[in-house]
Amino acid sequence: MSQPPTPRVLVTPAAEATIDLLRDEHGPLMFHQSGGCCDGSSPMCFTKGEFRVGGNDVWLGQIYGCDFFMSASQFEYWKHTQLTVDVTKGRGASFSLEIPMGVRFLIRSRLFTQEEEQNMAIVYDGEEYLTRPMEA
Protein backbone atom coordinates (compact mmCIF):
# COMPACT_ATOMS: atom_id res chain seq x y z
CA MET A 1 0.00 0.00 0.00
CA SER A 2 1.50 3.36 -1.00
CA GLN A 3 1.62 6.34 1.31
CA PRO A 4 -0.24 9.54 0.44
CA PRO A 5 2.01 12.28 -0.94
CA THR A 6 3.79 14.55 1.52
CA PRO A 7 1.76 17.77 1.72
CA ARG A 8 3.70 20.95 1.03
CA VAL A 9 1.45 23.18 3.10
CA LEU A 10 -0.48 22.58 6.33
CA VAL A 11 -2.69 24.72 8.59
CA THR A 12 -3.02 25.05 12.36
CA PRO A 13 -6.35 24.78 14.22
CA ALA A 14 -6.09 28.49 15.14
CA ALA A 15 -5.73 29.42 11.47
CA GLU A 16 -8.67 27.14 10.59
CA ALA A 17 -10.85 29.03 13.09
CA THR A 18 -9.89 32.33 11.45
CA ILE A 19 -10.56 30.87 8.00
CA ASP A 20 -14.03 29.81 9.21
CA LEU A 21 -14.82 33.39 10.27
CA LEU A 22 -13.53 34.81 7.00
CA ARG A 23 -15.34 32.21 4.92
CA ASP A 24 -18.62 33.04 6.71
CA GLU A 25 -18.19 36.69 5.74
CA HIS A 26 -16.54 36.46 2.31
CA GLY A 27 -17.37 33.03 0.88
CA PRO A 28 -14.73 30.75 -0.72
CA LEU A 29 -11.15 31.82 -0.05
CA MET A 30 -7.64 31.43 -1.47
CA PHE A 31 -4.12 32.18 -0.25
CA HIS A 32 -1.12 33.63 -2.05
CA GLN A 33 2.40 34.19 -0.75
CA SER A 34 4.41 36.53 -2.95
CA GLY A 35 7.51 37.58 -1.05
CA GLY A 36 6.88 41.05 -2.42
CA CYS A 37 5.98 44.29 -0.72
CA CYS A 38 3.88 44.88 2.39
CA ASP A 39 4.22 41.85 4.66
CA GLY A 40 6.87 40.26 2.47
CA SER A 41 6.57 36.51 2.65
CA SER A 42 3.39 36.41 4.76
CA PRO A 43 0.54 34.44 3.24
CA MET A 44 -2.28 36.69 2.11
CA CYS A 45 -5.91 35.58 2.16
CA PHE A 46 -8.28 36.71 -0.60
CA THR A 47 -11.78 35.93 -1.73
CA LYS A 48 -11.33 33.05 -4.19
CA GLY A 49 -10.53 34.43 -7.64
CA GLU A 50 -9.76 37.95 -6.38
CA PHE A 51 -6.03 37.39 -6.90
CA ARG A 52 -5.29 36.34 -10.48
CA VAL A 53 -2.67 33.63 -10.73
CA GLY A 54 -0.65 32.73 -13.79
CA GLY A 55 2.49 31.01 -15.00
CA ASN A 56 4.61 32.91 -12.45
CA ASP A 57 2.72 31.33 -9.55
CA VAL A 58 2.82 27.81 -8.12
CA TRP A 59 -0.17 25.95 -6.62
CA LEU A 60 1.09 24.05 -3.57
CA GLY A 61 -2.18 22.41 -2.56
CA GLN A 62 -5.14 23.19 -0.38
CA ILE A 63 -5.40 24.11 3.26
CA TYR A 64 -8.79 23.72 4.90
CA GLY A 65 -10.53 23.91 1.53
CA CYS A 66 -8.57 26.93 0.29
CA ASP A 67 -6.13 26.84 -2.62
CA PHE A 68 -2.63 27.97 -1.64
CA PHE A 69 -0.37 29.63 -4.21
CA MET A 70 3.13 31.05 -4.03
CA SER A 71 5.11 33.10 -6.51
CA ALA A 72 7.48 30.89 -8.51
CA SER A 73 10.51 32.88 -7.35
CA GLN A 74 9.53 32.34 -3.69
CA PHE A 75 8.90 28.65 -4.35
CA GLU A 76 12.52 28.27 -5.45
CA TYR A 77 13.56 29.29 -1.92
CA TRP A 78 10.85 27.37 -0.07
CA LYS A 79 10.55 24.16 -2.14
CA HIS A 80 12.55 22.11 0.40
CA THR A 81 10.33 23.15 3.32
CA GLN A 82 6.92 22.17 4.57
CA LEU A 83 4.92 25.30 5.29
CA THR A 84 2.34 25.62 8.05
CA VAL A 85 -0.09 28.53 7.95
CA ASP A 86 -0.72 29.89 11.43
CA VAL A 87 -2.28 33.06 12.83
CA THR A 88 -1.09 35.52 15.44
CA LYS A 89 -2.41 38.70 17.05
CA GLY A 90 -1.24 41.87 15.44
CA ARG A 91 -1.95 43.91 12.39
CA GLY A 92 0.01 43.12 9.27
CA ALA A 93 0.69 45.61 6.50
CA SER A 94 -1.05 43.75 3.71
CA PHE A 95 -4.38 43.63 1.92
CA SER A 96 -5.19 40.23 3.41
CA LEU A 97 -8.79 39.72 4.58
CA GLU A 98 -7.91 38.95 8.22
CA ILE A 99 -6.18 42.29 8.90
CA PRO A 100 -9.35 44.13 10.13
CA MET A 101 -9.79 41.33 12.73
CA GLY A 102 -6.55 42.35 14.49
CA VAL A 103 -4.74 39.15 13.49
CA ARG A 104 -2.48 38.13 10.65
CA PHE A 105 -1.55 34.88 8.99
CA LEU A 106 2.08 33.81 9.10
CA ILE A 107 4.20 30.90 7.91
CA ARG A 108 6.07 28.43 10.06
CA SER A 109 8.38 26.10 8.18
CA ARG A 110 10.60 23.07 8.52
CA LEU A 111 12.83 21.21 6.09
CA PHE A 112 11.45 18.05 4.55
CA THR A 113 13.16 14.82 5.47
CA GLN A 114 14.83 12.84 2.69
CA GLU A 115 12.06 10.26 2.97
CA GLU A 116 9.37 12.93 2.61
CA GLU A 117 11.10 14.41 -0.44
CA GLN A 118 10.80 11.04 -2.19
CA ASN A 119 6.99 11.28 -2.09
CA MET A 120 6.14 14.96 -2.62
CA ALA A 121 2.69 16.24 -3.52
CA ILE A 122 2.45 17.51 -7.10
CA VAL A 123 2.64 21.26 -7.71
CA TYR A 124 1.23 23.12 -10.70
CA ASP A 125 2.00 26.52 -12.11
CA GLY A 126 -0.94 28.90 -12.08
CA GLU A 127 -1.89 28.15 -15.68
CA GLU A 128 -1.61 24.35 -15.24
CA TYR A 129 -3.75 24.64 -12.10
CA LEU A 130 -6.82 25.42 -14.19
CA THR A 131 -6.47 22.15 -16.13
CA ARG A 132 -5.04 19.91 -13.38
CA PRO A 133 -6.68 16.58 -12.65
CA MET A 134 -9.08 16.89 -9.73
CA GLU A 135 -8.12 15.01 -6.57
CA ALA A 136 -10.38 12.14 -5.59
TrEMBL record:
Listed Pfam families: DUF779
Protein name: DUF779 domain-containing protein
Phylogenetic placement of the source organism: Bacteria, Pseudomonadati, Bacteroidota, Cytophagia, Cytophagales
